[in-house]
Amino acid sequence: xxxxxxxxxxxxxxxxxxxxxxxxxxxxxxxxxxxxxxxxxxxxxxxxxxxxxxxxxxxxxxxxxxxxxxxxxxxxxxxxxxxxxxxxxxxxxxxxxxxxxxxxxxxxxxxxxxxxxxxxxxxxxxxxxxxxxxxxxxxxxxxxx
Length: 145
What we know:
Radius of gyration: 18 Å
Order of helices and strands: HHHHHHH
Distance between the termini: 16 Å
């Protein structure tokens, strides 16, 4: 997961740098990133990515099974055997991690995504400070980790 985490950290740093620039805040002012997000009313980049990724997954899951993106989601290389060592980080692993944060399994997500308005509500905009807007109210809402 180092590749994804490293990219996320770089995106997060750039996002905060741009927000600080817009607000005219210098790094010398010692203002936390959470305070900057509160002032701008923006989400953390992690929540923004999570929202967009899960939105796309819902879109693909609702597609007809004959469509290429739907097939690609479940496709496995025939006869492939992974080598020794830690598995490489990949997109589907990121999706499953995000679903776990929502306390959903892949199978539950497949069913939930069929109801588009409900899926949009579940995966919609997060609170600017990084918590789910309806946190703790049952399945489908983010847990702090």
